[in-house]
């Protein structure tokens, strides 16, 4: 009989400081307690490459970040996202190599589409966990193909329906749908992983960034299809703020785990750029702070770690550990007596209700427990 295992999952990581280990100073102890820990990498780890013209917001990360992630206690890293090819093919491969040299398992990317769709397996005390990773947020050319490197895609289409056809210029209704072949491939991947593992986690870089509560239609379609195929948890990220959590067939869907350890410096030129102002408009209370290492909207300071308890029969328990990100871009664990603990719990409850996810969030010791309504 195997013991229970702790799988800890967080969102985006992108260090930009002389000593990247400092990003994790307040959370390292807890991450290291997990039997398996997962995160999403948002930056290339390389000294080479030329920035691709379709890369909107990017930086080149120090290869030492890989060792810092491993030192923090992580084991599995998804690189499937909208930054994976920002600095070209050499930088893309450098990143994978640097992560692997730091003894991290990399998922969701590869030299071709077959490699990008391969699961990563982690075994602890007889319990085998499979990870798969995909991205919907995809600049042109970032997804892998039969003879091209990149990430595993889970693309979606957008349709704008004019609601009042006799009144030009009125707001449209927005519909999104999964790309059929990508969804078919994802379902096939999950089924194959399910046959080889006790627990399957599917990472998805997706959704609508910075807009509170709102989910795109395709996200539910993809998440439900993955769970129907055998996935045990959906680990979402990219939005840079928390989104709601749903329990579907007793399996958790974390639509956005939010930022975890993301450094974002800001200067006047960046703050006044057209590209930043377009994003800033999504969050009207976003005020740049040139003295801070964390330049995101106020809601982006709230974050979580998903803590999943597993055993050889699969998923036993799901809970949330509330985090708050300080001005040095470091996540801090919130204790129940800190008012920010309740702030995060109430925020999750509110945005989940707005998205009609039917989930309750209740304090349980130093965690937040999830219950399907």
Written account of the structure:
By secondary structure, the protein is an alpha/beta fold. The chain has a single domain, classed as 4-Layer Sandwich (Purple Acid Phosphatase, chain A, domain 2), CATH 3.60.21. Helices cover 24% and strands 32% of the residues. The protein contains 9 helices and 22 strands. The strands form 5 sheets. Strands 1, 2, 5, 6, 17, 18, 19, 20, 21 and 22 form a 10-stranded mixed beta sheet that branches. Strand 19 (314-325) and strand 20 (331-333) form a beta hairpin. Helix 5 (180-194) runs parallel beside helix 6 (217-229). The radius of gyration is 20 Å and the shape is globular. 48% of the residues are buried.
Task: Please give the structural blueprint.
Blueprint: E1 5-14, H1 28-33, E2 36-41, E3 44-45, E4 60-61, H2 64-72, E5 76-78, H3 88-101, E6 105-107, E7 109-110, H4 113-116, E8 120-124, E9 127-135, E10 150-151, E11 156-162, E12 172-178, H5 180-194, E13 199-205, H6 217-229, E14 233-237, E15 245-248, E16 251-254, E17 259-262, H7 268-271, H8 274-280, E18 302-311, E19 314-325, E20 331-333, H9 339-354, E21 359-364, E22 367-372
Parallel strand pairs: 1-2, 1-17, 2-5, 3-4, 5-6, 9-13, 13-14, 14-16
Antiparallel strand pairs: 1-18, 7-10, 8-9, 11-12, 15-16, 18-19, 19-20, 19-22, 21-22
């Amino acid at each position: 009989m195997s013991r229970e295992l702790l799988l800890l999952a967080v969102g985006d990581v992108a260090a930009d400081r002389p000593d990247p280990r400092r990003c994790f100073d307040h959370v390292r102890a807890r991450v290291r307690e997990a039997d398996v820990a997962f995160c999403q990498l948002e930056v290339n780890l390389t000294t080479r490459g030329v920035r691709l013209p379709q890369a909107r917001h990017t930086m080149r990360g120090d290869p030492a970040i890989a060792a810092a992630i491993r030192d923090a206690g992580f084991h599995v890293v998804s690189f499937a996202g909208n930054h994976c090819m920002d600095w070209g093919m050499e930088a893309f491969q450098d990143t994978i190599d640097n992560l692997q040299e730091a003894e991290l398992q990399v998922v969701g990317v590869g030299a071709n589409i077959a490699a990008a769709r391969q699961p990563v397996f982690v075994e602890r005390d007889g319990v085998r966990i499979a990870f798969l990773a995909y991205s919907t947020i995809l600049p042109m050319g970032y997804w892998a193909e039969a003879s091209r490197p990149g990430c595993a895609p889970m693309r979606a289409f957008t349709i704008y329906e004019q609601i009042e056809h006799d009144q030009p210029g009125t707001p449209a209704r927005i519909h999104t749908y999964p790309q059929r072949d990508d969804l078919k491939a994802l379902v096939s991947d999950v089924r194959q992983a399910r046959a080889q593992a006790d627990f399957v986690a599917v990472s998805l870089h997706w959704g609508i960034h910075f807009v509170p509560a709102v989910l795109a239609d395709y996200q539910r379609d993809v998440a439900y299809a993955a769970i129907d195929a055998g996935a045990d948890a959906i680990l979402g990220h990219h939005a840079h703020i928390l989104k709601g959590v749903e329990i579907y067939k007793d399996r958790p869907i974390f639509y956005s785990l939010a930022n975890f350890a993301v450094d974002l410096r800001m200067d006047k030129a960046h703050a006044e750029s057209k590209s930043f102002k377009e994003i800033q408009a999504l969050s009207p209370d976003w005020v740049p702070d040139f003295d801070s290492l964390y330049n995101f909207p106020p809601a982006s300071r709230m974050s979580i770690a998903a803590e999943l308890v597993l055993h050889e029969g699969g998923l036993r328990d799901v809970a949330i550990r509330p985090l708050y990100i300080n001005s040095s871009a470091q996540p801090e664990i919130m204790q129940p007596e800190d008012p920010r603990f309740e702030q995060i719990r109430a925020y999750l409850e509110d945005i989940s209700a707005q998205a009609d996810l039917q989930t309750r969030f209740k304090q349980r010791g130093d965690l937040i427990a999830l219950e399907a309504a």
